[in-house]
Write a structure and sequence with these properties.
Elements: H1 2-24, E1 39-47, H2 51-70, E2 74-82
Parallel strand pairs: 1-2
């Protein structure tokens, strides 16, 4: 039980450090990769059972949407929300 708690704490700390670095990074210019693309089709399969994780996914979808618009790609997104099976 103690090992699981330590593992979770270390994992959360590592993820936090990674996300902090990503948040400070400059926005990528995907012009070459998106050349000829007019519509960005994205399917979000969101499987969550905790509200804090849902908030993370929603922020990620907003960032993706804004990045597509910034690069003059029309976003076409489908969202699938479901809870984890017990």
């Amino acid at each position: 039980m103690l090992m699981q708690a330590i593992f979770r704490m270390v994992t959360i700390s590592i993820i936090g450090l990674i996300l902090a670095g990503v948040a400070q990074a400059k926005k990528l210019n995907d012009t070459d990769a998106l050349e000829g693309i007019e519509i960005g089709k994205v399917v979000w399969d969101v499987i969550v059972s905790r509200p804090d994780r849902l908030l993370f996914y929603l922020k990620l979808t907003e960032e993706t949407y804004n990045d597509l618009v910034r690069q003059e790609i029309e976003p076409d997104m489908i969202f699938i929300f479901h809870w984890r099976a017990a």
